[in-house]
Amino acid sequence: MSEISAEQVAHLANLARIALTDEEIGHLTTELAQIMHAVEKVSEVATPDVPPTSHPIPMQNVYRDDVVGNTLTAEEALSGAPESDGSRFVVTAILGEEQ
Amino acid sequence: MSDELIRLTAAELGEKLAAGDVSSVEATRAHLDRIAAVDGAVHAFLHVDGERAVETAADIDRRRAAGEALGPLAGVPIAIKDVLVTKGMPSTSGSRILEGWIPPYDATPVTKVRAAGLVPLGKTNMDEFAMGSSTEHSAYGPTHNPWDLDRIPGGSGGGSAASVAAFEAPLALGSDTGGSIRQPAHVTGTVGVKPTYGAVSRYGSIALASSLDQIGPVTRTVLDAALLHDVIAGHDPLDSTSLNMAWPSMAEAVRRADVSGLRIGVITELDGEGFQPGVRQRFHEALELLERNGAEIVEVSAPHFEYSIAAYYLILPAEASSNLAKFDSVRFGLRVTPDGAGTVEQVMAATREAGFGPEVKRRIILGTYALSAGYYDAYYGSAQKVRTLVQRDFDAAFAKVDVLASPTAPTTAFKFGEKLADPVSMYLNDIATIPANLAGVPGISVPTGLAPEDGLPVGIQFLAPAREDARLYNVGGALEQLLVAEWGGPLLGKAPDLTAHELFATEEGAL
């Protein structure tokens, strides 16, 4: 199961939006294979009859009344942004030329 | 006077403050002086806000003088792990991508400690986004273990543990996703508690793995941990996973500590191969001491614990890769624009490449892989099944015993660089602590002495069923009392004098 290629790592990096260098992709390809080899152990006991657990303490859906609570002001929400125009976050082009 | 103040426990300091023997400003200044004297060598703090700490302390002193009824920790200084957001104080989670970010709100545990009159001193160092067991993955350089400055203080909360071990703060807040409170406690001779999942609000805690993360106390004594636990626990409507229930007083559990008739289960799978002899020796001595004082020691098996690390290193990266998607160069933190500008996606990719360290990238890629189509069932799905099996092991064990015990971690503090090149061996540090996070049960680490072979501190871990955190304070408090009586004083009394070291280093530097 743990055959991982450099092309796969490059694809994962693109999905995760990290512009990895070729050198990083090289390291990660080796390391990922080692780590996956170690974690594949889970399949030894994860048989079909065992139900999965996603949350440690069983809980029901949690609701609250639909009333406005304490919220950040626009100024507070924008205070940490790399770029804003005072009321909105500013980003660069959303679409590339080929899109 | 100043040295006496920093060596008091939080409970003792709280009493002196209440009695008017000392002011919060004096106590706060004493700790700020200590930080100035030793933190150059220890590097427990990423940020110290001395001016605001003194202002907060002065306000508490004024309120006390005006006759206001204050809690037992009012006026006591506290250090805060940088994973918790703090209004007006930088919050980086140990990452370059959040360098200089000042959050517009407080995390709920921070709101609670402020409301209880505690005095925040600053933010403590950690592995980037809490990914690590040594603080070597902090973007701002590692924290040094006060017992031996060439060794790791544990992680990810090495900064919080080192700050209390070095007497820079009597109390600290930590977060524990796979052992990040308990393992640093073990290697620094301090106390650390991971409460039941949901006992303490995670609102404002920069999420690593949402189904595993829990905030808890980092202290020098079990009573101090209990007092802080009582302040931070409780339901929070801002965290939907927060448990809506009434908690008993943990401080009361320590004050009434009594192990007679208590059934303690020793986990067979966590008491053998891979554990350093001195770690096991002190563990068994502690159990014998408890047995002599009325506890019953029973051996129990947890056959699926050996699959915990594998399951953890699938679940954690999967959840982390989703949680860390928020670092997108738009709303907060770093923005790196590649040459020739580019689209928002290219800016995002360049920012994340520059802003994340190697361990964070490793885990995001791992998590993205584990969640990708075609692999999801084999990896993430199987890991969730292991989680069920680990919970069943706990259920079976707690049907026979009141609490479980194991060494907190397999070894004493290792040297910097020793495990950095081998991620899998680094991950093995958390073998004893991870099962509790997978099952959501609470755990405590209490110092049991120094390993004879290297003179470094080791701890014992107790685990209790979910919602039974008070049992940990009972057994931990009882053991601490017995051990301190045997030693003739607290273990940290044997730690090296850091100011002497600092002087020595300065003299050497002068030559």
What's the topology here?
The complex is a heterodimer of chains A (99) and B (511).
Chain A: H1 6-15, H2 22-39, H3 74-78
Helix pairs in contact in A: 1-2
Chain B: H1 2-7, H2 10-19, H3 24-42, E1 45-48, H4 50-65, E2 77-81, H5 108-115, E3 119-124, H6 158-165, E4 171-175, H7 182-188, E5 191-194, E6 215-219, H8 222-232, H9 250-255, E7 263-267, H10 277-292, E8 296-300, H11 308-323, H12 344-355, H13 358-371, H14 377-398, E9 403-407, H15 423-427, H16 434-439, E10 443-450, E11 457-463, H17 469-487, H18 498-510
Parallel strand pairs in B: 2-3, 2-4, 7-8, 7-9
Antiparallel strand pairs in B: 1-3, 4-6, 5-6, 5-10, 9-11, 10-11
Walkthrough of the structure:
The complex is a heterodimer of chains A (99) and B (511). Chain A is built from three helices and no strands. In chain A, 33% of the residues lie in helices and 0% in strands. Chain A is mainly α and 99 residues long. Chain B is α/β, with parallel strands linked by helices and 511 residues long. In chain B, 42% of the residues lie in helices and 12% in strands. Chain B is built from 18 helices and eleven strands. Chain B has helices at 2-7, 10-19, 24-42, 50-65, 108-115, 158-165, 182-188, 222-232, 250-255, 277-292, 308-323, 344-355, 358-371, 377-398, 423-427, 434-439, 469-487, 498-510; strands at 45-48, 77-81, 119-124, 171-175, 191-194, 215-219, 263-267, 296-300, 403-407, 443-450, 457-463. In chain B, helix 3 packs antiparallel against helix 4, helix 11 (308-323) crosses helix 13 and helix 11 (308-323) crosses helix 14. Classes of the chains: A mainly alpha (99), B alpha/beta (511). At the A-B interface, helix 1 and helix 2 of A face helix 11, helix 12, helix 13, helix 14 and helix 15 of B. Chain B: InterPro entries: Amidase, Amidase_CS, Amidase_dom, AS_sf, GatA. Chain B: This is Glutamyl-tRNA(Gln) amidotransferase subunit A.
